[in-house]
Amino acid sequence: MFGRLASFVQQAAEVLAPSAPLQDDFIHHWKAVTHQLLAPRDEHQPVEATNVPDHLTNMVELLNQEEMESDGTTGPCMEYLLQHKILETLLALGRADSPPGMKQQVLKFFTSVIGRAQQPLLPHIHVHKPVLRLIHCCAESRASPTEGDEVHFLCTVASSLQRHPHLANVFLEQRPTSTAAEPTSAASTKSPRPQAYTIDPDHSKFHLLAALLELSKSEDRRVSLKACEGMLLCASLDNESTARSIANNSPFCQILADRVQSTFASIPLDLPAQKVLSCSAKWGMEGGTDEEPAYEGRTELRAWLSCLDYFDRLVLSSHSIIASALLQSLDERFFKPQLQPRLAQMSEHGLVVTTCLVTKLVEVVTAPLLVHGLILLLIGPGSQSDSDSDSVDQVELCQHLISRCDHVNEELSLVSLQLFNLLLQKNDPLVIHRLVLHYLADDLHLKPEARENGGDQRGTAESTRPASGDGGGEGKNSTLTPGAHVSALAEQADSAAASESESQSGTQSPGDLSSQVSSSSVDSSRPETPSSENRPAESSLATSSTTASAEQPNTPTSPAPVPLTSTTPGAPTASAPQSLAFASGGDSSAARGRVASPSSDIEPLVQQLFAERNHSELIINTILTMLPETVKTSLHMPTSGYDEYVRDAQNQVARCFTACQKWSSTPLYIPPEHGQFTEGPFLRLLFNKLQRSLDQPYEINLTVTGLLTRLAYFPHRNLHAYLLDPFIPLSDNVRSLHSVLRQISAELSIRAQRTPDFQGNVLAARKRLSGTSNFETATSQTNHLYEAVVVLEEFCKELAAIAFVKSAAYSTVQSRIELTCVPRLVKAWSLLSCL
């Protein structure tokens, strides 16, 4: 009590007395601290009963005030602190914790000095040495009363290193090597950046991360979360030496992978599948809300999702060396020993729960490196050797996952299809290559004469397009290389524009022409169908890919189209696309008659553009008229038009094109030479499921059509024609999406004739699915039929919208190149756009 009274009198005297220099005040407070600590006292008296905490706080305030008033140079107070080794003195008192509670006060003092300093203090030898020794004192015992102050101090040091990553080397445990150089003089030890030893990152220890790793195991949730934040900062340091030390000489990666594995192993296998798919938890928020009903296993499931979210953030923000080590540890400790055997078990219910957990795993993971590692586990590598047992196991696992999509257990079939839907949404090149493009790359699905024409996938009626460059014969080994092709298109357009601007003055710029073509090819054109303005786009059935649309909401306005790239290496870049150039609808023959006698060198281009327009119009009309008119019910709903489908297709295609442009132009592998065309297990599965759609549940039909829609987004020439072009010359006994839909249409016509008031029942099913009616008028089996008709009708409209958007998008880049290469083409486009 007398001490506090003396402190109060001292503060009053300081207020009344004239202000002294900052250095004098600083020295006064430090001497007061040393006097009270050295004076005789009771050993059990806590430090809070003295004036030491107040004096230390005043010292920090004086240092901050001095730094604010200075011009960036070291002030006298800071010089006094460094010269008199105040931090080392406090460190000795803190390590001994004498008087009791002194360690906590020292941690607060160090944290305030380092955290509030504007200039870096860690390079000074009298700063980083006591800081490093204090780091060794942290996390010495579990459930320590100073855990909160320790983790705050460690995170402050990590944040300072984040601003100055080159200073992290001084916190590595330096061990002399065979080539180590001894210090030459005493002056060298006082330099701002001492290098007394040669640092070997592979045999050094980063004690800052080690202390944070220990504190992350604390039972106090706040301390654990704060320690995890500090580990994020340490792992993201832009310092190769620190990254190598963490990856090669620290249990950091192994411990975090074990946490993911242990939390996954604690999840019970009797969880309901829908509970797993609907559960969500973020790192630091695994507690959930009280509104969600509790069920057995929810706590364990949330703990695993939270741990997985933190691991994903860590891989996403870490140094590349640490990220690779984290992925390797997760693969060795979780993917192969636990996840892979769980996916190969025999219990159907266990397979359903495990597949749902893997689906949540794919959904949560966003780090590209982690996504690719997970896809390697589920899909298999792009090229596998027979001697690689791991590759063979992964390929067999992929085959098992595909076969379960057509399992007799509808719940297992549905969750397996949803897993592949999420895998395709990740836009990883390995997924689309292994599942689909591996079987379409050699053009064996086309007739021999079409393959001899360099992979021209158009029927004979549209094969009169003029030749436009070499390299068209390389379509056999087409690979998904949109990034490289877009760059080639841009380079040709820019070089042509530059050459034309030098030779022709007053010509319109390519950028203006591109924007003109973009606006005219999308905004002013609509699919020309009978009564197209009266066709609805149901809000609840707007797209069969419900998950993708929910994750990426549509914008109120249609975005500008993005270029669709021909993905065959060496293919002509200036030629018109194959069945991908739809413009505004209308009677093409009447429009051609209004052309004002173009010159002989312009007429071939005009005819080519008209042919592309007509072909795309035929594609869209064929898709929209696939089903019999007697079973369609869109006209009977309040909403009408295809605008919602077009907007959704523009958004989804744009995102897919943007993701594909980042892919490497190098083929993942050379496809094997097949004796005859095979669809592959994945396309065969989708076509078979679609062919049985009239007898399948609504949820499965919705997922199957969503997968086909997802495939139609990808900018690959063969895949686009195989799914969206009904006029490609297919080989004998080869199915396409159009042929499967034709068979369904024929069977549907027969069933509609046998069922009284078939269209009325379909309309009732549509209203029930859209939520406008709850009236049940049929049995479960017939409900599947009526609901399937609704899904198929909406699926056809969605395919037509995708074909329309991709055609208009490619026309933009096509016109940009052609209109900048030859000035006379500007006149040709002007004649065509006036029609």
Task: Walk me through this protein's architecture.
Helices cover 59% and strands 0% of the residues. With 835 residues, it is mainly α. Helix 8 runs parallel beside helix 10 and helix 33 packs antiparallel against helix 34. The longest helix has 42 residues. The protein is elongated, with a radius of gyration of 35 Å.
How would you concisely characterize the structure shown here?
The protein has 34 helices and no strands. It is mostly helical.
Which terms summarize this structure?
835 residues, mainly alpha, 34 helices, elongated, disordered C terminus
List the helices and strands and how they pair.
Blueprint: H1 2-16, H2 22-38, H3 52-69, H4 76-83, H5 86-96, H6 102-116, H7 125-137, H8 147-163, H9 207-215, H10 221-235, H11 240-248, H12 252-265, H13 273-278, H14 298-317, H15 320-343, H16 348-364, H17 368-379, H18 389-404, H19 410-425, H20 429-440, H21 448-452, H22 482-503, H23 510-523, H24 546-551, H25 588-593, H26 603-624, H27 643-660, H28 680-691, H29 698-713, H30 717-724, H31 737-754, H32 758-770, H33 780-821, H34 824-833
